[in-house]
Amino acid sequence: MDLKRNVEAPGVPTTITSQKMTVRNQDGQAIFEETVVLTRGPLIVHSDKMVVLFKPRNHDSLVPSGEGMDRHESVRNSSSPTGPSTGSTMSNRSVNRVEATGAAHRVKIKYENGNATCQKAVYFVDREKIVLTGDPVAWEKGTRVSGKQITIFLAEERSVVEGGSHVRIEGEGQSHP
């Protein structure tokens, strides 16, 4: 059974599913592991591990003491359905950035204008920007690009490839991962 949590960002809901989740309220982060999938509008990210870093919250929005969440509460696939819920501790938090990691080409990203693979992707929510490292490769509209680092600006529909960039223009009908 997958764990599924909604993490609200201004205007666009973010949903993350995984086999294991650890919430660290003191550190302002949630760690998702094993078959992780993030969905935020047209953006979909698959990875082995994902760390969600929240913006600092006001002291006014602290979780009531009766919620039952410890600062290092771990929720697993095998947890009791009557166990503590982590949704309330994250629902009033805004996501600052998301760091997705995996083995070679295990981080897979699909977005409105294309898709990409890499070993590490850092998504900066406020700037609608994803920085890909670890042998990144991206496909957009029949063009394959690779380099040391690829930065995708989602809202601007543009990408920047740095460090030994390589571009291959494929036929329109060519398939890609």
Structure notes:
- The protein is mostly beta strands and 177 residues long.
- It is 3% helix and 54% strand.
- It has one helix at 87-91; strands at 3-9, 12-18, 20-24, 29-40, 43-54, 74-76, 95-101, 107-111, 114-118, 120-124, 129-133, 137-140, 143-146, 149-153, 158-162, 166-169.
- The protein has a 16-stranded antiparallel beta sheet that branches.
- β12 and β13 (143-146) form a beta hairpin.
- The longest helix is centred in the middle third of the chain and has 5 residues, at 87-91.
How helix-rich are the residues, as a percent range?
A: under 10%
Q: Give the radius of gyration.
A: 18 Å
Enumerate the spans where pLDDT stays under 50 for 5 or more consecutive residues.
1-9, 59-89
Count of beta strands: 16
Averaged pLDDT? 77
Global morphology? globular
Distance between the termini: 26 Å
